[in-house]
């Protein structure tokens, strides 16, 4: 695996592969890689001639300086994991390389970016759009891969791609979970052993809510999920929204015009912010 540090090196390498008619899969990450990220690398490996992973803790998407400061940075381990996963290039730039001057672009992301994470973390999605649009421009991939744990982020990235005219495939990949159901996240390492023992309740409650959906309304299930999660020690639900899977707007019915409704949750477990989601599809 080659490690590239500059945009110039990355553009040059990608041009060569495109000229040779090869397909390119891009997997953007912020590092601290876990099995969820590796599943994206493997999918990209299966579907493309060349796989590029970026590892960049993007400052413009953090609205909390403390969160940016404490975000885990594990470059050595990340490179070992990417090599093992058969990635061809790791793009690991400095902040100065990506932002030689401030990025003042404001994307018109519309309603998909205004609710849930967009409402709780002002500026977050604009920062995601800034970095992902830059990466898309440098690499011009055949396909780009994102995990469905960040369900709303995928909708926002699709919207950014539409605005910017990126016509390639944006591939959404399933959430990878620990055996006890906790969605894999780079933040899980910050949980104390006591919090880690409780955190799987998030997925357990969401899974139980699938059964409730047979007999309860959307509003009733929303209330039930929040009360149930908040009954566990350390846990405070920030929001639980049941939404249309494309527009991210609140759903009134379990089946929306765009497919089964999706429940998206953010929970503080102590001071660690965890997110998860579940699709209310009929079994
Ligand atoms: O999901 C992430 O890790 C980040 O938001 C992304 C897409 C790599 C952009 O920094």
Gyration radius, in Å: 19 Å
Name the poorly predicted regions: none
Helix content bin? 25-40%
- Regarding CATH, which class of the largest domain? Alpha Beta
Lateral arrangement of strands in the main beta sheet: 1-4-3-2-5-6
Task: Classify the secondary structure makeup into a structural class.
Answer: alpha/beta
CATH topology of the largest domain: Rossmann fold
What does this structure look like?
This protein is an alpha/beta fold and 283 residues long. It has eleven helices and eleven strands. A six-stranded parallel β-sheet has the order 1-4-3-2-5-6, with helices on both faces. The chain is globular, with a radius of gyration of 19 Å. Residues 28-30, 58, 61, 128, 131-132, 150, 153 line the site of pantoate (PAF).
Summarize the structure.
The chain is an alpha/beta fold and 283 residues long. It has helices spanning 7-19, 35-47, 65-70, 75-84, 95-98, 117-120, 124-139, 151-164, 193-198, 201-212, 218-230, and strands at residues 2-4, 24-29, 50-55, 89-91, 143-147, 169-173, 235-243, 255-256, 259-260, 262-269, 272-279. The chain binds pantoate (PAF).
Write the layout of secondary structure elements.
Elements: E1 2-4, H1 7-19, E2 24-29, H2 35-47, E3 50-55, H3 65-70, H4 75-84, E4 89-91, H5 95-98, H6 117-120, H7 124-139, E5 143-147, H8 151-164, E6 169-173, H9 193-198, H10 201-212, H11 218-230, E7 235-243, E8 255-256, E9 259-260, E10 262-269, E11 272-279
Parallel strand pairs: 1-4, 2-3, 2-5, 3-4, 5-6
Antiparallel strand pairs: 7-10, 8-9, 10-11
Bound molecules: pantoate.
Pantoate binds next to strand 2 and helix 7.
């Amino acid at each position: 695996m080659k490690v590239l540090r500059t945009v110039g090196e990355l553009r040059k390498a990608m041009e060569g592969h495109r000229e040779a008619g090869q397909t390119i899969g891009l997997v953007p990450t912020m590092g601290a890689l876990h099995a969820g990220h590796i599943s994206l690398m493997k999918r990209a490996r299966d579907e493309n001639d060349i796989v590029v992973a970026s590892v960049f803790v993007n400052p413009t998407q953090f609205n909390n300086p403390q969160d940016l400061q404490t975000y885990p940075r594990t470059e050595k381990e990340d490179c070992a994991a990417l090599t093992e996963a058969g990635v061809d290039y790791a793009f690991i730039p400095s902040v100065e390389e990506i932002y030689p001057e401030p990025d003042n672009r404001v994307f018109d992301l519309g309603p998909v970016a205004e609710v849930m994470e967009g409402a709780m973390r002002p500026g977050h999605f604009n920062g995601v759009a800034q970095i992902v649009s830059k990466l898309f421009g440098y690499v011009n991939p055949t396909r780009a891969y994102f995990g469905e744990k960040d369900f709303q982020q995928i909708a926002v990235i699709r919207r950014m791609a539409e605005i910017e005219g990126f016509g390639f495939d944006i591939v959404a990949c399933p959430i990878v979970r620990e055996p006890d159901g906790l969605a894999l996240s780079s933040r899980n390492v910050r949980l104390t052993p006591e919090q880690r023992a409780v955190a799987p309740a998030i997925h357990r409650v969401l899974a139980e809510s699938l059964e409730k959906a047979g007999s309860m309304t959307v509003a009733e299930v929303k209330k039930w999920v929040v009360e149930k999660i908040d009954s566990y020690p350390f846990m405070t639900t920030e929001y639980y929204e049941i939404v249309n899977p494309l527009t991210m707007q609140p759903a009134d019915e379990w089946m929306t015009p765009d497919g089964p409704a999706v429940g998206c949750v953010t929970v503080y477990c102590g001071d660690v912010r965890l997110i998860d989601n579940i699709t209310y599809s009929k079994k």
